[in-house]
Amino acid sequence: MVPLSWYLIFAAALFSIGLFGVLSRRNAVAILLGVELMLNSVNINLAAFWRYGDVSQMAGQVFAIIVFAVAAAEVAVGLALVISVYRRRNTVVADEINMMKW
Amino acid sequence: MATELLIWLIPLPPVLAFFLIVLLTNRNKALSHTVGVGAAFLSWLGSMVVFVRALGVEHLGEHPFVSSVTWLPLGETTDTYFDIGILVDPTGAAVLFFVAWTIFMIFLYSVGYQNFGQPKGDHDQAGLPPHGATVEEHGHRHRVPSVEPMYSRFFAFLGLFAFGMYVLVLSDNLLTLFVGWEIMGLCSYLLIGFWYAKPSAREAGVKAFMTTRVGDVFMLLGVAYLYSATGTLSFREIFTEGVLHTLATVPSGVLGLSAAGLIGLLLFIGAVGKSAQFPLHVWLPDAMEGPTPVSAMIHAATMVSAGVYLVIRMFPLISLDPTTMAIVAFIGAFTALFSATIAVAQNDIKRVLAYSTISQLGFMIAALGIGAYVAAAFHLITHAFFKALLFLGSGSVIHGMEHGVLHTGDHKVDPQDMFNMGGLRKKMPITFWTFLIGGFALSGFPVLTAGFWSKDEILADAFGHGHWAVFITLAVAAFLTAFYTMRQITLTFLGEPRTKEAEHAQETPWTMTVPLVVLAFFAVTAGWVGIPEHFPALGGLIPNWFHEFVGGTLAEHPEAVEFSIWPLLTSLFVALGGLGLGWLVYRNVKTPAEDRLQIPVLKNKYYFDEIYDYLFVKPAYWFAETVIYKFMDQGVIDGFLHSFGPVTDRFGSAIRNYFDLPVINRFFGDGSANVTYWFGGKLRVVQTGRIQQYLMFALVVFIAVGAALYFFLLA
Amino acid sequence: MTGEQIIFLLTALFTLGSGVMVVTSRNLIHAALWLVSALFGVAVTYALLDAAFLAVVQVVVYIGAIAILFIFAVMLTRKDMRDQGPQMNTNWWFGALLSVLVFGGLFFLLQGWSGLSRTASPIPPGFDSISELGNALISPDAYVLPFEVASVLLVAALIGAVYVAFNPRSGDTRK
Fold first, then answer.
1. What is the reported pLDDT for B163?
2. Cα(B495)–Cα(B339) distance, rounded to whole angstroms?
3. DSSP string covering B578-589
4. What distance lies between CA B260 and its chain's CA centroid?
5. Listed residue (B468, B141, B526) closest to B329, CA to CA
6. How far is A100 from chain C (nearest CA, A)?
7. Which of C40, C54, C100 to mutate to test the interface with A (most CBs of A within 10 A)?
8. C102/B706 touch (CB, cutoff 8 Å), yes or no
9. Which end is more exposed in chain A, N or C (fewer Cβ atoms within 10 Å of the end residue's Cβ)?
10. Taken in order B19, B23, B24, B29, is the CA torsion positive or negative?
């Protein structure tokens, strides 16, 4: 059997990769890609804790489903924002979208 | 009603009248004089009742009417109080008698004198004497006297004055006596300056107030010394043998006087101011600027009597020191002669009487100075009656003359100048006869008049006790008195009218003549109560009641002097001689130029006003102007204050430039702002607007804090 | 090493490799496609965890909808078909450092946890996870409220996305 630690370390690794994407990519769409990876890593954790805990308690799966919904909403809004910004500023580079500074 | 309670109530009506008139009835003249005269009547009634009851008490001197209440906690121990109260002993009763009569008569007289019932003046104004009104009658216009514009105020002041006098007479201690004394001082100022729009009246009021103030200060010193020496101001407590003995033996350290002598001298100076004795006599003639009832009130009945009354009251104390007594006698005798000589040369009818008053008061003071206690009190009372009579009579004359002035319309004629008069006996018979009685009483016309008996008693005392200087001085003064009195009567009433105004003079209304008649009655009869026992023919017909009665006030009953024919002859001679000479000299004098006695030095009152002006008034002005104003105020005080400005200014700018600007403004104010600005400037670069950098910062902080928490809390 | 472990390791390697390609590939279309493969790997992981429903939803929703959405977005935000210039920002090394730190931190924390090496108990016979999940989602005693809130969130996101992405300059089509 696969021990729980394998899943957790796998999820942590995926999370860190996603984090790196969020922190380092210039393109706003690419940042959102990194966010998707992080959300998936969380979902892996939730599913793993369900499977390795009391199976009859469905909280893990339920929250995974809700994370799906939140992720879908986030992607929809986030991409809409990116498109809107692109229309106004003609760029999707995160560094250049700095209107909200001092 | 118990006599003591009644005595307490006597001073009350006039002061109530004062407040009533001032506060309520001021606008209604009839109501005001009703209140005023009514109050005077009530006090008169009470005084008469008290007087009659006092007559019925045997040995009143040992058992006077006394009553006192605790007034002022002294705080030395818990229940020591300064007591105030009333005292009516024989002297007090006698004084109360004449005070009540004269005050009541003066109130009544004022109604007529201030022209009550006459129309309002054409152009009268408050603060000036009424100028007369024009009325139409039977088709032709003529001018009549007009009512005084400040009629109600006059009665209010009179009421307050009467209150002061009653308080003074009835007090059983020096403090309330002094209170009444000062109330009268204030009222004399108010009344002398009653016509305040006249500059001369204003100045006379101030002069009277200031001059008497000089005496009052000394009197207050005397009162204070007396209180510190004995611990009491009550007459009855002071005039005990022990206290008097202590006062007489303790030296005061001033001029070699004993304590009693110094206190007596200080109190006597107060009396000098109030009774207008030399050298503080100057205010009294000027006080004639007031309305005539005021002159009568101040000069005859009350205020000047107050000075003599004080000396009479304090006689047991003053008589302890021979030096003080000598001073008193000297001042009195000197004043009597000195002012009699001035009176000879005066033309103003009231001024003659004013100097006459000073002279007669000098008689009393001199009498006290030689120990003639009873004679002084006797003369005080008779003088009050006939001098009040003379003043009111002169007021009546002036009033009649004003009538004439209004008739002719020539306002340059002075209705008070005797050389404008003459022949008034036909026009004003009642005034003439009463004035004649008063004048004869003043001159000491033998046997009939009161003045003869009292003056004779003074001369007899001086003769009997061997005070030759006093005797001769007073005799000469008495001669002059008769002389100038006859001069006055001759010029005013006898002969033919010298002016048109005198021809048209008119008798005055009954409110003025009734008081004259009443006072004339007393001017005659008041003397009969004191006829010496051994007087030829008359002696013994009526017992010498006055001597017994008033003499009972003193602890040691004074012996009546042995009868001697010389003083009697002297007074007969001076009275009749003076009167006769006066008539002889003045019966044919028509103008002032014919009057040989218009000697400048006498006319100008020995230049005392001028001397005082140079000695006191001018230096005071100079002192005020040069020293106080220019040097003290402008130089020292203003200079000091002005130096304050620059110093404060410099100090202020120093604080501003060296503390406020650099420390507060630059360091704390601008400094904190600059620091914040600098930090803001440095920190604002953090706000890059790059979302990834924010996230990095967040993570760094998260990791750092998480690590720290882990290592420091969990591990 | 059992077959299941081998399958897990292969899947994990595949997923992590795809993830690295997602965050490093220069071409965004490639990155989106690498994301699809990573998401597929995650779906396999779900299957390995006996979460069949999640595996299906992962494939249908993520790969079928979200990944396609990304590809559309990439295409809509490009001037030309090539991605020019650097795809990493200037602080990428710091991001990498932080990521390593986070991983290290998580690894460190997991190591100290006692339940780390537990194994899964077998699924009880007759246990139907899908019907259990369905019951949990719509049961008033369980998670119906979060479920409904999620639906509201989706509607709000739908409307918000339409509003935000609406191009005013292109004008109202109904005009």
1. 92
2. 27
3. HHHHHHHHHTT-
4. 26
5. B468
6. 18
7. C54
8. no
9. C
10. positive
Q: What SS3 class is residue B143?
A: strand
Let me know: does B3 contact B149? Beta carbons within 8 Å. no
Which of A22, A73, A84 has its CB closest to that of C157? A73
Q: CA–CA separation, A38 vs A20, rounded Å?
A: 10
Please choose, from the candidates C88, C76, C113, the residue with its C-alpha nearest in 3D space to the C-alpha of residue C23.
Answer: C88
Over residues B278-294, the pLDDT tens digits come to: 888 888 888 888 888 78
Question: What would the two tokens of residue B8 be?
Answer: 């307490």
Q: B521-555 pLDDT, tens per residue?
A: 888 887 777 777 666 666 666 666 777 777 777 76
Could you read off the pLDDT of A10-43 as tens digits, one per residue? 999 999 999 999 988 888 888 888 998 999 999 9
pLDDT at C175: 40
Torsion angles phi and psi, residue B137, rounded to 5: -145, 130
Chain A residues with CB-CB distance to B699 below 8 A = 23
Q: At what angle do helices C92-111 and B691-709 cross, to 10 degrees?
A: 30
Give Cα B518 to chain centroid, integer Å.
Answer: 25
Residues 451-470 on B with a CB inside 8 Å of A are: none
CA distances B139 to B120, B135, B142, B504, C125, Å, are 20, 10, 10, 21, 152
- In 3D space, the residue among B436, B426, B593, B596 whose CA is nearest the CA of residue B496 turns out to be B426
> How many other C-beta atoms are found inside a 10 Å radius of the C-beta of residue C116?
15
Q: Where are the domains of chain C?
A: 1-82, 129-167
Domain range annotation of chain A: 4-96
Q: Minimum mean pLDDT among A25-39, B412-426, B506-520: which range? A: B412-426
- Range list of H helices, B292-428: 292-295, 303-313, 315-318, 322-344, 349-369, 373-408, 424-427
Chain B residue numbers with beta carbons less than 8 Å from the beta carbon of A94 are: 690-692
How far does the CA of residue A23 sit from the closest CA of chain C (Å)?
5
In CATH, what number does A4-96 get? 1.10.287.3510
- Which among C85, C95, C137 has CB closest to A24? C95
What DSSP element (H or E) covers B82? strand B81-88
CATH level 2 (architecture), domain C1-82 = Up-down Bundle (1.20)
What are the backbone angles phi and psi of residue C148, rounded to the nearest 5°? Answer: -65, -40
Q: What amino acid occupies position C76?
A: L
Rounded Cα–Cα distance for residues B210 and B204 (Å): 10
What residue has token string 């892996």? Answer: A44
Least CA distance to A27: which residue of chain B?
Answer: B692
Query: d(Cα B233, Cα B87) in Å, to the nearest integer?
Result: 13
Question: Which of B677, B682, B688, B702 to probe the A interface (max A CBs under 10 A)?
Answer: B688
User: φ, ψ for residue B142 (rounded to 5)?
Assistant: -145, 165
CA quadruple A14, A16, A18, A24: dihedral, nearest 10: -150
Task: Report DSSP state, residue C2.
Answer: -
* Residue among C88, C121, C129 minimizing CB distance to A25: C88
